[in-house]
Structures are given as structure tokens and as C-alpha cells.
Amino acid sequence: MRRQISLTEAVECCTPVARPGIDEGDAESLAFLFRALGDPSRVRIFNLLATSDEPICVCELTEPLGLAQGTVSFHLKKLMQAGLIDREQRGTWAYYSIHPGALARLGAVFEPEGAKP
User: Fold this and answer.
1) How high is the mean pLDDT of the chain?
2) pTM score, two decimals?
3) Cα–Cα distance between 109 and 9 in angstroms, integer?
4) Radius of gyration (Cα) for the chain, nearest Å?
């Protein structure tokens, strides 16, 4: 039975892949992050948000992605559950941005243990 990863574990996860002998919990946390980015549409959404100077409305993501709003919302939810993006409600519309530190956390996953920045 697969262990459920909490949002806190996903956000806190930074176990380097290059570290010898990661345990099952670390592997589950890393897999959770990789699954969130394991879809081309989610990678494109993450890229659009990472390269934007301000939060983006869900309605502004449908055209560049060529996806229906419901599909975009589904992908955004997966990225939020992994702690990679934030959501801000403004009236009827939701605006999304990269969670502070998400890029650094993702980069740290690939740093060899003991590597100096």
C-alpha cells in the first residue's frame, strides 16, 4: 500500500538524488514531486509561471496551452498539492505563482551530497 505524502513533506523535500542510500520515505517524497512534473502540460504551466513577473490568472493559461480551463485547473491542483505553486483568489478568478523557494528546492534535489553552492 502506498503511503500518503503530506503537503508539508512534499514542500520540505530536498533529499538529493545523488545521496547514497535514500530511505523509502525520501524516495516517496521525491517521487511525489517528480509525478507532479511528470506531465508535459504541468511542465509547461510551471515554466509559464516561473518566467512570469506576476501571478497568472487561470484564464490566461488556457490559450497558450491549448487546453480547456477544467484541464488546466486539474494540472494546477497537482502542482499545488506538490507545494510547487501558490494560489490567490481574486474575486471569481484564481491567480497562480511559483511557491517561494520551489526552484531552489528542485535544484537541490540534483545537488550531490556535500556539494557547496
Assistant:
1) 83
2) 0.77
3) 14
4) 15
